[in-house]
């Protein structure tokens, strides 16, 4: 029988679980489940299992600092605990995991509270890919009685835009589905472009689904405000110490299954949107300038730097 961590990692790798937030939630739940069914007899053995789980989960998708921050926090709490009993240490895993998930949920609601105010009545909103944080915000605006239209890009190669389009239709929102390369064609009709994030770097650049930087570029040309909605914990502390955020490169078969032999296919899953293109990051602390990310992280989540 496969352990919960391998099962979760496989689902994440295959995109059965998609989006940074859902990836982090699946990884946290799997780590908690692993700890609860451990046969470890000592703290050392438990930590060994947790570190192996961390390696498996981190390798499932490379560009997911929210998952990494969460798993690091859980393991750090076990490492630092003065408890020796494995039972007590697994309780620590549960406590930290559950608190993290509650905080994540609260951040999502706070982001929706703030971001929904930016959705004007009778406006047109363009989004790219599927971000559960973006759709939560739009759902909030809708429940507040606002009337708006959404344009969704299909998001090649695996069409996460279809998930967004279905969610919007279920909400009763007038929804238009376009191919990614039609973004410029429609941008002049758009009042607000809004996307999610997988990672935020120390310089305030944002990494999100491939094509996001083109949406930002086109939005700037059309003078359309471009916002990123993101929990602050998508910040990657490693970027502060010189590391580049790794951009996951996926199977060529996602793009062309029976491609001619010798054809080179490249399939990066994400790209980097420079901070100068971003009007603001809508996060749980408010709408912030990408430039202020380090200062806010130091104040709100100092533990990510340890
Ligand atoms: C999803 C994607 C989303 C972010 C944010 O890419 O780029 O915009 O992950 O999502 P993929 P959320 O489908 O490859 O995971 O707001 O749900 O965290």
What's the short story on this structure?
The chain has 306 residues and is an alpha/beta fold.
Key features of this structure:
single chain; 306 residues; alpha/beta; seven-stranded mixed sheet; three-stranded antiparallel sheet; 10 helices; 10 strands; globular; binds ribulose-1,5-diphosphate
Sequence-ordered SSE layout with sheet pairings:
Blueprint: H1 4-13, H2 20-36, H3 43-60, H4 65-80, H5 86-116, E1 123-127, H6 132-143, E2 148-153, H7 161-170, E3 174-178, H8 183-187, E4 192-195, E5 199-200, E6 206-209, H9 212-221, E7 226-229, E8 270-273, E9 280-283, E10 286-288, H10 293-300
Parallel strand pairs: 1-2, 1-4, 2-3, 4-7, 7-9
Antiparallel strand pairs: 5-6, 6-8, 9-10
Helix pairs in contact: 1-2, 1-3, 2-3, 2-4, 2-5, 3-4, 4-5, 5-6
Bound molecules: ribulose-1,5-diphosphate (RUB).
Describe the structure.
Helix 1 packs antiparallel against helix 2, helix 2 (20-36) packs parallel to helix 4 and helix 4 (65-80) packs antiparallel against helix 5. The model has no long low-confidence stretch (mean pLDDT 97). This protein starts with a helix and ends in a 6-residue tail after the last helix. It is built from ten helices and ten strands. The longest helix has 31 residues, at 86-116. With 306 residues, it is α/β, with parallel strands linked by helices. The radius of gyration is 20 Å and the shape is globular. The strands form two sheets. Strands 3-2-1-4-7-9-10 form a seven-stranded mixed beta sheet, sandwiched between helices. 45% of the residues lie in helices and 13% in strands. The chain binds ribulose-1,5-diphosphate. Residues 18-22, 129, 131-133, 160, 195-198, 208-209, 269 line the site of ribulose-1,5-diphosphate.
